[in-house]
């Protein structure tokens, strides 16, 4: 049942964790939905909640590089652009392209400011362990973004050293782009350090959703830079996330109609270009296990996705809870009720 509150769709995106027939835990989820006319058309809990945008900002962080002709000057393709937007799974394909990006700049892994971590895709972990090779910074899910930031510095004639620092021209240009798309002045934007070491910005959820609504409309209208970014991830969805990674599967299962970007600590942003919709969610406790369930529930309540999801998406919407013997003892699921949002 669809419930509206004062003309606005009231979303209930809380995620329940059950054991037998008992709700054992609940993840509270906040969200904002911006429509084609740039007004709030849906919300869950606090649509103005301030939180860090994390990797959801990557589409916008790469825009100055694309607009400045960086792709052409380096001979980069859709593959490099897709990886620059990615929170990739550290699979061999991802690592190889990141390495290729650096080589084209005359740089190497040690020039990346991000640190190494285990691949985020199960296939990536398996293949890395079987290789017997050490983890490198190329396995970092943000290595493509960092390589593109180094490329931005190199093609603009700026020093590559310190490119991750908030006062470096690379980061200032990224922050300026985010400010432009969200409408939040830089002076009103809390700046922190992201997990990968670059500047990260704090924004209200409704401004995140606004940026994605604007991005989607720009893609649908064929505006050059947004359209090139969308074309890259649509052509190479595996590079955006990886094998069985949520953003990749959502792109594939919707034929590119829904473009989503994961962020750490329970943040996710989504654009639906044909509808001009932008969605931003925040799982209050930062639990990634609730994040994908909430995004799918929001898209279903908005009518973007059907009630009966295709199998690959359904697997994300209904996660089994298993014990140490591998037995299914409960489920991770969206809360059934839709409640009004207090404004």
Mean pLDDT: 95
Strand order of the largest sheet: 1-2-6-5-12-11-10
Strand content: 15-25%
Low-confidence runs of at least 5 consecutive residues: 337-343
**Could you describe the largest sheet, including whether it forms a barrel?**
7 strands, mixed
Distance from N terminus to C terminus (CA atoms, Å) equals 21 Å
Number of helices: 14
How many strands? 14
Q: Based on CA inertia axes, which overall geometry fits?
A: globular
Give the SSE order as H and E letters. Answer: EEEEEEEHHHHHHHHEEHHHHEEEHHEE
Radius of gyration: 20 Å
Bin the helical content. 25-40%
Structural class given helices, strands, pairing? alpha+beta
Main attributes of the structure:
single chain; 343 residues; alpha+beta; seven-stranded mixed beta sheet; four-stranded antiparallel beta sheet; 14 helices; 39% helix; globular; disordered C terminus
Please tell me about this protein's structure.
- The chain is an alpha+beta fold and 343 residues long.
- It has a domain at 50-266.
- 39% of the residues lie in helices and 20% in strands.
- It is built from 14 helices and 14 strands.
- The protein has helices at residues 58-61, 63-67, 70-74, 78-84, 92-104, 122-131, 143-156, 169-182, 205-221, 224-235, 237-240, 246-253, 288-301, 311-317; strands spanning 4-5, 8-10, 15-19, 22-27, 29-34, 40-44, 50-52, 191-193, 199-204, 259-263, 267-272, 277-283, 319-322, 328-334.
- The strands form three sheets. It has a seven-stranded mixed β-sheet. Strands 4-3-14-13 form a four-stranded antiparallel β-sheet. Strands 7-9-8 form a three-stranded antiparallel β-sheet.
- A hairpin with a 5-residue loop joins strand 13 and strand 14 (328-334).
- Helix 4 (78-84) packs across helix 7 and helix 4 (78-84) packs across helix 10.
- The longest helix has 17 residues, at 205-221.
- 52% of the residues are buried.
